[in-house]
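Regression test attached.
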Amino acid sequence: MKTIEEINAKIKKKKVVVVTAEEMIEIARSKGTKKAAQHVDVVTTGTFGPMCGSGMFINVGHSKPRIKIGGGKCYLNDVPVYCGLAAVDIYIGATASPDNDPRNTVYPGAFKYGGGHVIEDFISGKPIRLEATAYGTDCYPKKRIETFINKETVNEAYIYNPRNGYQNYNVAVNLSKRVIHTYMGVLKPNLGSANYCSAGQLSPLLNDPKYRTIGIGTRLFLAGGVGYVAWNGTQHNPSALRGPDGIPRAGAGTLAVVGDAKQMSGDFIKGASFIGYGATIFVGLGIPIPILDEEMAYFTSRSDEDFWAQVVDYGQDYPERIPKSLCEVNYAQLKSGKIDVKGKEVPTFPISSYSKAKEIASILKEWISSGRFLLTNPVEHLPGVESGIKMNTLEERTIEEVAY
Amino acid sequence: MKKRMILRFKRNTIDKPVVYGLVKNYNLVVNILRANISPKAESMMVVEIEGRESDFERGMDYLRGLNIGTEPIEQDINRDEQKCVHCGICTSVCAPEALYIPDRNTMRVEFDYQRCVACELCVKVCPVKAMSVSFD
């Protein structure tokens, strides 16, 4: 048994043993999990995938005379931002599209520039055109402003992503007879392709399946800077299907993360256009996992063949919210390039970047071994299986059905 | 030698039987991978040409003499290495597997120009716009 405090003392003395989740697999294979737990102090994880549940708060500073953007309208590079906040606080979401974007009226829809691209441009230090209109008040008389901002001109700019780092995800296939364009990429008809989206053995929450060490307040790598877990993510579903050792076999836990955008790098957060679907953003996330005991050594040394995911039809079942899995496959099979679905060999394609995930786990390892990055005890644990959380759905209800 | 080329035809050159010319006079094997021929606009053809290097050079001179543009495919199709995040989405639409993942441990996406047929599907699908085609 080790404590976070003991591990941090070792980090400060630069005597910590930190390895990536890939390296941990090999260590546990050769030494066994018991010795691996004694030897290794920290395992680093990483993931780099499209995460629509992302966005950024900015306080743009006050104009002269003052303008109350709050309650008005505001655009960054023509992309609408949320203004229902205080006078000069705005929030830009990754999937926002310009008002005049043709969206998918020009089939299938290119979504060339959206909120995710604005965030990447801002983080990369590019000038961003701000346009805002307001109704004008005695204290905020200005009604219109057009100007440029960048990350030096604003006050705070912080990423607050309400849902990142999904613990496992569906494998998407298409049983229909036409090509479909989805957030899981382009899916060929008649079970012609299978797209998947997880870093598997490097994925943060898959390496801590029971949320023993990742909780509220956990310090992490977010898009090249330091960030924190703010809360559980939206749709956090600890009650999802799990294997006998507690590892989720479907999309389960999620994280809400926060971090200073000014520290981040455009190499680890990238605006994305999903053809026929919309604008979004690739987010790089890495979380260190303290090896407190043999159980954590066991979990962090699970490899792709131990992580299973559900194959789901996006031709009909997913859009119609039919909870059906065609079969289960593991990440070793997915990464091999083909899987077997109902007796048919189906080629597989990744959506999230495993090579970037590796890079992130390595950077985090370097941060920790050089003494720059200390581990945290969760301030509060994320809701686990015991919480009994169930996902609610949006039904078309009458007022009587919801009135007490 | 074997090489993939993009041939560009101005409106007044599409009536020339160039494939016959390349085969008959220059002893080249011509494999048409993709063709977009229109009498009203500029036309293009993606071809794989196989033969002796000297015959290839003379064949290209013959085409240029007819005012047909000849460009190696790698000059026109480009991947911006700074933008590419190696997510792998492009490999799902690349039928000739020019974009492919050879190493299943690193999962990095490689681009083999010599397999590309310039279909441009990757350009449409790449979420970070790393793939580009510049026809001039």
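Expected vs. actual: identical. Chain B touches chain A at residues 83, 85-89, 91-93, 101, 104, 106-108, 124-125, 127-129 (CB under 8 Å).
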